[in-house]
Design a protein that fits this description.
The complex is a heterodimer. Chain A is of the alpha/beta class. Chain A has one domain (7-97, 178-324): P-loop containing nucleotide triphosphate hydrolases (Rossmann fold). Chain A is built from nine helices and 13 strands. Chain B has a domain at 108-174. In chain B, strands 6-7-8-3-9-10-12-11 form an eight-stranded mixed beta sheet, sandwiched between helices. Chain B has a four-stranded antiparallel beta sheet with strand order 2-1-4-5, with helices on one face. In chain B, strand 9 (229-234) and strand 10 form a beta hairpin. The radius of gyration of chain B is 21 Å and the shape is globular. Classes of the chains: A alpha/beta, B alpha/beta. At the A-B interface, helix 6 and helix 7 of A face helix 7, helix 8 and helix 11 of B.
Chain lengths: 335, 339
């Protein structure tokens, strides 16, 4: 992809807070910041990997991109349109252009509909076919595309294995030829020998249909194989991003180094209960390289000299290869 | 078995377990034989439904309803577990053989504190004084990597994180100094960095040189990190046994094991632009509808008529062996590295 290609999806300063229970009648609002000022873009035909552990906010970001969840602050631009302000019919018109593949192929398919009906439903909703026979024809082609047999059309989800159901989920997602697919851990619940088949299917949809993909996963080696660029999340912060091979072979953030080097570092669960200080780097308590300044101020965002990479870390300030990023505001004042 | 380790701790011989299901009688454990030596960590790899969890439970002589042992025996330190009375088995479970489950949140009692549950273990298996029990509980929690045992003891399971709960499970599993620990997918529900810490903790079990560990997992990179020897199960049978060094170095013998290794992008440096992943075609056959001959034959690139009609023999190659007519002896091109 050339860097000049226009962005299909652009996410700016996305924040999502969830209210916590326990607020008294006049008590202060208690909330959890699941996503803190996250910005990224996906170009046409590009695959972006979103990696992080559970609780890092990756699923919340996926749901906000899909407009299944409203952001607390921030904007989502899809092909130049501000999705966050779209409502009703205008939003529905756009919906067919971005579709989602869910993690759990058991829970995300209606058990009372045949798989043929499930895959054909989006065509009906978006009024893309004129007759039942045309719909059936399109569904048969979709089945063929994802590696299912047209003999399976009248079967029900329960009659399929996990891999088969995930193919049905993908066929439904691509039914309206979307420009963007959001896949949230699509192989995490699949059998070992089936995962590679589904990964190949995503690669081929990207290759032949030019579908852009937001691939959400905790599986670093799969992200390395599949994605052009990667965003590393830690407790809701996008701590590092850039072209996948560069970020994963020469990580700049201590957390990414931990992930990639598989050096266990300081046990995360031992820090349970030790709450992080709002406004400071979320990785501070686990960071082996923390500087005095890390305990005083939130880290700024730095870009690399060549462009394309970003890291949010004080360590970058003293390195020549990084310079303060001007493109977007720093992460300060999130809490 | 490791050379020079003397007696093996556990010997499973030709174990076959049947299970009644809606689809009819199936054999999730079929003619399974293996050993675990003292101080040895054995990794058991398989996909869901391959029979690896039931194999693990069998070692505690715990069977789900509808299950029946059709043949075989399990020798633990020379004693045939399947021939023992329930009262004897209850003493062995927890004390000499213990188990770590995948989901500590469902294996721990949610309404009792961690301390209560751990004291219970000592009370039912030993006659230590209350103060001595308290010391033991603190000691085990500390050796499971929990630096503040007092606080953890007072906590209920839901107040702990997933990694901490798994450490509590491990503390309970090693509490009575068992000789054999069975860990069923202990790292699956954990975040990657936490999983690695748990792996390090588990591999310390081997340091005692008297204990054995059966590590059941579907994650090859975890199995590689921890195991001395690898067993691979497919459709209820052990299809390969190999020292880890050989399995991940020269390469496995069974085409299924090879295909599993190859289907993961780890360490190859390849991306989608180079080539598609070498996926295994088709899917695992259901146990109630196994093909004649080798169960992997319909998905196997090396299979011929013979594989589709006859049951494959066990063929050995040094310390390794595979249930296959045509084991693959060619060394792997590039060594398998964990990304």
């Amino acid at each position: 992809m050339s860097p000049e290609a226009p962005s299909l999806l652009e996410v700016r300063g996305l924040v999502r807070e969830f209210d916590l229970p326990g607020r008294g009648l006049f008590g202060p609002r208690r909330f959890l910041t699941a996503v803190s000022d996250v910005s990224f873009a996906i170009r046409r035909g590009e695959i972006l990997g979103l990696v992080g552990e559970s609780g890092s906010g990756k699923t919340t970001i996926g749901r906000m991109v899909m407009r299944l969840l409203d952001p607390t602050r921030g904007e989502v631009f899809f092909d130049g349109l501000d999705l966050t302000s779209l409502k009703g019919r205008k939003l529905r018109q756009q919906r067919r252009r971005f579709q989602m593949v869910f993690q759990d192929p058991y829970a995300s398919l209606n058990p009372r509909m045949s798989v043929g009906e499930i895959v054909g439903e989006p065509l009906l909703i978006h009024d893309l076919v004129n007759s039942p026979s045309e719909r059936r024809e399109r569904v048969v082609r979709l089945f063929d595309r994802v590696g299912l047999s047209s003999h399976d059309l009248d079967r029900y989800p329960r009659e399929f294995s996990g891999g088969g159901r995930q193919r049905v989920g993908i066929a439904r997602a691509i039914a309206c030829s979307p420009d963007l697919l959001v896949a949230d851990e699509p192989i995490a619940s699949l059998d070992l020998s089936i995962g590679a088949q589904i990964i190949n299917l995503f690669a081929s949809l990207n290759q032949t249909e030019r579908m852009s993909l937001l691939f959400i996963s905790h599986d670093l080696s799969v992200v390395r194989y599949l994605s052009d660029r990667v965003v590393v999340l830690y407790r809701g912060w996008a701590i590092e991003s850039g072209p996948t091979p560069e970020v994963l072979t020469a990580p700049a953030h201590p957390y990414t180094r931990l992930l990639v080097g598989q050096d266990p570092g300081i046990p995360a669960e031992l820090l349970n209960g030790e709450s992080e200080t709002p406004g400071l780097c979320p990785f501070l308590s686990r960071c082996p390289d923390a500087l005095p300044v890390c305990r005083e101020a939130a880290p700024d965002r730095f870009g690399n000299a060549g462009g394309g990479r970003e890291v949010v870390c004080h360590l970058a300030a003293s390195q020549d290869s990084w310079m303060p990023s001007s493109s977007s505001p720093s992460i300060q004042g999130i809490a | 078995m490791l050379q020079g380790e003397g007696l093996s701790l556990l010997e499973v011989c030709h174990l076959t377990v049947s299970l009644r299901t809606r689809e009819g009688e199936i054999r999730p454990v079929s003619d399974v034989s293996f050993t675990i030596g003292k101080g040895e960590v054995v990794g058991l790899v398989g996909e869901s439904g391959s029979g690896k969890s039931l194999t693990g439970l069998s070692l505690l002589a715990l069977f789900p309803p509808g299950a029946k042992v059709l043949s075989g025996h399990i020798l633990f330190e020379g004693m045939d577990l399947l021939a023992q009375e329930d009262s004897v088995l209850r003493k062995i479970r927890g004390q000499r053989i213990s188990m770590i489950f995948q989901e500590p949140q469902s294996a721990l009692n949610p309404v009792l504190t961690v301390g209560t549950q751990m004291r219970e273990l000592f009370k039912s298996h030993t006659d230590l004084s209350a103060s001595r029990v308290r010391e033991c509980v603190a000691d085990r929690l500390r050796s499971a990597g929990l630096p503040d045992p007092e606080r953890v003891s007072r906590s209920y399971p839901h107040q702990l994180s997933g990694g901490m709960r798994q450490r509590v499970m491990i503390a309970m599993a090693i509490a009575l100094d068992p000789h054999l620990v069975i860990a069923d997918e202990p790292t699956t529900a954990l975040d990657p960095t936490v999983a690695l810490q748990i792996l390090n903790l588990l591999s310390s079990i081997r340091e005692s040189r008297t204990k054995g560990l059966l590590f059941i997992s579907h994650d090859l990179s975890h199995v590689r990190r921890i195991s001395d020897r690898v067993l691979v199960m497919y459709a209820g049978r052990i299809v390969e046994e190999s020292p880890s060094r050989r399995f991940f170095g020269t390469g496995p013998l069974h085409p299924y094991s090879r295909a599993l290794l190859a289907s993961r992008p780890e360490g190859t440096g390849r991306t989608r632009k180079d080539a598609p992943l070498p996926a295994i075609p088709g899917q695992v056959p259901p146990l109630w509808n196994l093909p004649a001959g080798c169960a992997f034959a319909p998905r196997c690139g090396r299979a011929d008529e013979r594989c589709r009609n006859e049951s494959p023999p066990w063929q050995s190659e040094g310390e390794a062996g595979a249930l296959c007519f045509y084991p693959d002896m060619t060394p792997l091109g590039a060594p398998f590295h964990v990304a």
